[in-house]
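Tutorial, part two.
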Amino acid sequence: SRPLMLRMKFLPYMARTFGCRNGLKTLSQSGANAYERYTLGMLQKWGMSHGAIKKWQPFFYQWGLYAKDVLVKLRAHNQDRKKIAHDNQIPPRNDSSAPIGSVTPLRHELSARRYLWHMSAFEKLYRQGTMFSLGAIDSSSAC
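Running the prediction step on this input gives:
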């Protein structure tokens, strides 16, 4: 049917936009389990088959782990910078270019408005078979 073909053609865009970008708020505020429920509900609402859901849920799960780790590390890095600036009476800079590790430079904020750099980096790693877990992104070179 024509509507199904049109929907399948735009599925990667829909997944990135509605699952990854729009899901950042759920992930940030409510955590990985709530994000998983959000994406599963989204796929079910779109009328996706069980096979399509099995294909997309691992992608969303891995994005959730990646994004949550980045969000936590960015928040910690920004808090550390503010504390150091306050302790030394230095005005805080807006530039946060210190790397978190080999995967995630801090200069790339992860937000609904600025998520595409992370999406691109994540998709490359995901296609290579890189699997994430909470705390997987090396923060030894942060700050």
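The chain is about 65% helix and 0% strand. In part three we will examine how such features are distributed along the chain.
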